[in-house]
Amino acid sequence: MLWIIVSVLVITTKGHDDFSIEEATIESIQRAFAEDKLTSLQLVDLYLNRIQNLNPVLRSVLEINPHARVQAEEADRQRRSNSHHPRSFLHGVPVLLKDTIATDDKMNTTVGSYALLGSVVGWDAGVVEKLRNVGAVILGKAILTEWYSFRALGKTPNGWCARGGQAQNPYVLSATPCGSSSGSAISVAANLVTVSLGTETDGSILCPSSFNSVVGLKPTVGLTRAGVIPVTPRQDTIGPICRTVSDAVYVLDAIVGFDSNDEATRYASYYIPPGGYKRFLNPCGLKGKRLGIVRNPFFKIAQGLGLAQTFENHLHTLRRQGAIVVDNLQIANIDVILNVTASGEAVAIVAEFKLSLNAYLRELVASSVRSLADIIAFNLKFPDLELTDKIGQDIFLAAQATNGIGAQEKAALANLENLSKNGLEKLMRDYKLDAVVIPRADASSVYAIGGFPAIIVPAGYDSQRVPIGISFGGLKGSEGKLIEITYAFEQATKIRKPPPFKP
Q1: pLDDT of the residue at 428
Q2: CA 320: distance to chain centroid?
Q3: Where do runs of H (alpha helix) occur along 35-156?
Q4: Which one of 40, 204, 343, 367 is the catalytic residue?
Q5: Would 428 be classed as within a structural domain?
Q6: Quick check: 193 and 187 in contact, CB under 8 A?
Q7: Which residues fall within 8 angstroms of residue 154, CB to CB, at 6 or more apart?
Q8: Which of 198, 273, 404, 453 is most buried, by CB atoms within 10 Å?
Q9: What was the pLDDT predicted at 83?
Q10: Structurally, how many domains does the chain consist of?
Q11: Grouped pLDDT means (10 residues each) for the chain, 503 residues
Q12: In this structure, is residue 317 part of a structural domain?
């Protein structure tokens, strides 16, 4: 087993107490700013130093923003010019973006592929524009599983992309980092950045968060979306990956809201509560919540990992904190929902991918590829760059063979809608549940096909020291309840530990 030697980076400024970036939260950073113990520029430099030391092994950061230090200096100037002016929690705080989230700057947006290297988007994704507006520092782009693992069925290694190579799980380097937002989760877990953004179509925030002992928040589809290299707008969403629930909530507050480039955000904005989401950070938030425990088939997986008792202990914690635990529930047709072929999810997404990707590529200011067909041709022309002979591109080819949304796709979409209505929606309403509780990210398809939100938080470590999370999911717009539940659970358990960097 390979371990990394690292020293904790500490600074001392102006005679004040030391400030450490190890496990630093947004609140601790803002407190250090306010007490004149830290500047944004110093914080950025500390993270750049740490990235320089650790990224050669972890490979989670794909690209550094050449303007990150300039943005930090501007945040410091604003803070000095009016020290009493109220500012966002994210003012001056570095944020790392998954390399699928568009930025109008010198950085690339490539979904990990050389095919899009050098392309110019020409606009900021809606979430990036919002981050800039509140004074956050865009630190760089994080690695991901290339093309969201959507290029070839089951052949792209989790955390691998042509541009960055293989990212590593910071807890056990031989373990999977999961995907596709692997770099966002690894970087936060290993303290290479304060907070990050990932994207999810089906499991891409929840799974890497589980395997890297961090908090992943998958918002209701439509709260955040425009400006991402798409798989399907019907399921794509952007969400925070952080070390604490409170940090995830502060990021969520900053990035949600109407986006003129995405009409879906107009309707989803009605879900945003007055005053934002931070008011749900309630340590007593489990009291009176009705939580449904779906054991089949999810707890069998936990048993196979030797973690059955861990999750039983968590159920006891939920009860002690005042939750009403409704056990042994079943989601109707769960085996079908979890089978992307049987459910129709695969049929729908393959067709939607071609349509949405071609539309995205046509809008680029500059690019050598303007369609899925161009990307397929690029991979064939440069097989060594993209490992085409090894990985292939069978999903790309299947998508290219589709011709819009025909009868087959419409039938698949109708089936997905029925599975969702008769599955999670019916269960939640029949038992008057606030959330369902499921080990790991294994229920991601349940949340994906309905556009539902979910939050995953650290739940423990297996016998090999690989992290495992516990997810709480609900119906559309239920982020407030999920935040109350997960924050109270986090405060009652305090499970997360930083990666055990040892020689």
Answers
A1: 98
A2: 30
A3: 40-58, 68-81, 126-133
A4: 204
A5: no
A6: yes
A7: none
A8: 198
A9: 67
A10: 1
A11: 38 56 96 96 97 97 98 96 83 98 98 98 97 98 97 93 98 96 98 98 98 98 93 97 98 94 86 96 98 92 84 97 97 98 98 98 98 98 95 97 98 98 98 97 97 98 94 98 98 96 48
A12: no
Q: Which amino acid is at 163?
A: R
Strand order in the sheet with 137-142: 61-64, 137-142, 94-98, 195-200, 237-242, 215-218, 454-461, 467-473, 435-439, 290-294, 324-329
Look up residue 328 and give its DSSP letter: E
Our answer to whether residue 98 is catalytic in this structure is: yes
> What whole-number distance in Å separates Cα of residue 25 and Cα of residue 244?
8
pLDDT at 7: 38
Whether 295 is in a domain gets the answer no
Please identify which of the residues 40, 113, 149, 180 carries the catalytic annotation: 180
Supply the pTM of this predicted model: 0.96
Helices (H) and strands (E) in the chain, counts: 21, 15
Selection from 450, 422, 463, 483 nearest residue 307 by Cα:
463
Find how far residue 324's CA is from the centre of its chain.
29
* Residue numbers of the domain that contains 64: 22-284+454-493
CB atoms within 10 A of CB 16: 13
CB distance 210 to 469 below 8 Å:
yes
Please state at what angle helix 479-493 crosses helix 245-255, rounded to 10 degrees: 160
pLDDT score, position 84: 65
- pLDDT for 236 equals 97
SS3 of 290, please?
strand
Most distant CA pair in the chain: distance in Å? 70
Written as one string, the DSSP assignment of 380-428 is HHSHHHHTHHHH--HHHHHHHT--SS-HHHHHHHHHHHHHHIIIIIHHH
C-alpha radius of gyration, the chain, whole number: 22
Q: Is residue 390 part of a domain?
A: no
Here the tokens at position 319 are 């009860």
CATH number at residue 469: 3.90.1300.10
Residue 216 neighbours by CB under 8 Å, 6+ apart: 181, 185, 198, 205, 206, 208, 209, 210, 239, 240, 241, 248, 455, 456, 469
Query: What is the per-residue pLDDT for 441?
Result: 96
Whole-number Å distance between alpha carbons of 237 and 218: 7
pLDDT attached to residue 301: 79
CB 418 within 8 A of CB 348: no
Which residue among 37, 98, 218, 354 is the active-site one?
98
